[in-house]
Design a protein that fits this description.
Elements lengths: L2 H32 L10 H32 L4 H29 L5 H6 L4 H11 L2 H24 L11 H23 L21 H7 L2 H16 L11 H9 L8 H5 E3 L10 E7 L18 H8 L3 E4 L2 E2 L5 H10 L12 H5 L7 H6 L3 E6 L8 H7 L4 E3 L16 H11 L6 E6 L11 H4 L3 H8 L8 H28 L4 E6 L13 H5 L3 E5 L13 E2 L3 H9 L5 E3 L12 E2 L3 E3 L3 E4 L5 E3 L13 H24 L5
Parallel strand pairs: 2-7, 2-8, 4-10, 5-6, 5-7
Antiparallel strand pairs: 1-11, 3-9, 8-9, 12-13, 13-14, 14-15
Helix pairs in contact: 1-2, 1-3, 1-6, 2-3, 2-8, 3-6, 10-23, 12-20, 17-20, 19-20
Amino acid sequence: MNLKNFWEGIQKDFRLFMFILILLEIYRAIFIWLMSDYISESSTSAQISAALWTGLRLSLKTAGFITAISFVFVTLFGCKNRVRVFIGAISSLIFSILFMARFPYYQEYNATFGIEVVRGMDESFLSLMSMIVQEYGFLWRFPAALLLTFICIAIFCRLLLMKTVELPNFSNFVNKFIFTTALIIFIGVFAVFVRFGGSLTYGNGINWENSAVTSDNFLNECILDDGQAMYRAYTMAKNMGEAIIPFADETKILESAQYLSGKNFDENNLTLYLEKTASGARIEKPKHIFIIIGETFMQWPMIGKYENLHVADGLKSIIAEKNSYYSRNFLPNGDFTSVAITGFISGFPELNVKINYTPKTYDQVYISAAAPPLKNLGYNVDFWYGGELSWENIYKMSLAQGFNNFYGLPDLNAPKLTTWGAKDEDLFNAIEKHLENEPPTVHFIMTTTNHPPFNLDLKAEGYDYEKTLAEIKKLPNVPDAENLAVELGHYWYMDKVTTKFIRSVREKYPDSLFIVTGDHAVRIDPSTHPTIFEHQSVPFVMHGAGINSKILPPDAVGGHISIVPTIIELIAPAGFKYYSIAPSLFENFGVAFNRDVYLTENVAGRIGTDEIEILPHVASADLRGVNLSQERTTAETFIAAVRTISVWILKHDLNF
């Protein structure tokens, strides 16, 4: 490599660098413009400018990474210029595809690429493709991405054909040496400047973890270009693989055990701390217990602000009956169906670990698992799922963790509605028929219909699409009223058939106990600016003989892993021993959480941030004397204790 070729090479590499940098900034600006409905009304033009500027700085890292490949292989090692062209072309293709995919992705998750990408890798390829084609516009988005790619390649090739600045003529060796040395130093300084996102020091630099410089979540997400967003997803996947869980501290295992149990023993064994003693049955022991986990059974359609939509009237009518209890202060275990189910089965919160694929899950039954105490109360424990047995290893995991039976699509004697499974009505009909001559059983039931692709014949089911659409159009900041009306039609259907099942089974088996909740809420939001509560909360409903609205404190705070302990405390005789990490709803910790957010009696907040909001059903009078900072501190203390104990059990034996 001579100096002349090196000089020409770095000029062309710089053009590649600027091409990628400007492309990412243009895509960022277009995305903000086309998705401007998602910008908060309180956001100013200064915040938009800050997002664009900070994003440009962050994209220095992405452009620098791509340019480094060209610099090493073409400029330094002497590969042909076509390699540089190929790098630019492939980059154009990748960023154009990601740019087009960002739109439906944000509309579904209120975020750019993140942990959902990692979770999606475990799904069936055919199911994913069906959803991408039918719901997310693949058939027009992909050709549009290809068109953008061709335009980008044409522009990039034109840039490379532009004349480079010639190398100066040096009169002597000293001048050439000085020039070469200065050039190398400049390249080194420039590389550091790019690596740290527009700074020469890490402390003043920018990276995806500290890039949220505005008060607007949408703009903060736009700061991440698609390369940085995918790097975030990679980092999250790496943390999952290494079981890195925020707030979990194995050095504080004893402190965490003492905090949750209120006990202190001479022997350091979690068995002693996790053992709980039931205080005595509060209702007559039911023959059958049904824990219905509704697919995307978010809570917001049930609250007063959205009551005119009338898509949750079935469950609301159940709540209105005298044998019911309802809490609005409830969170799912996470943002994914598999996280909800594995939480129910194992008793663990979400831990950045796919416990349904963890070898230990199949070697031993976790001390916090749901099945053993329910079996000790005389029940079979069965899982019912409307989809395939192979999905997410749930079939194998439930049996390995002590369930008696797992029933899936092949057992329903019903056609497959979508790639995800049978109609919910067919699932419930199969369960109801199965109850004949069935011994006392706890039935975990996971529905599937309220999931993309949304292809149920809503008109045939009796859904008034036009009426719901008219009500949706009255709501503020709805980006796609027609699509939301279809999604809520599937929610309405789930609500209808769930209510029908409860009433039908209750008539035949009046001593039954029903629990209704949702696997998660994210995916269907009421607006471009959902509150934390709207985006995350799911209902918790108990219904059955002996249940009433005062059997628990009003709006008791809890989550998925509180449900089984609550059932045990509801029906178990005094002195019954069982093990649980999470407290039941009869205990008064007053905190629920999942991976991203926490909830107390008064507020919801984002974990690890200062973002906090008052719950919509909390009156200002109820907040007298409430310290919001203390609410966050209390929540984080509880989160740390539960996560620490859970991680310890997952990684070690019960001794510490």
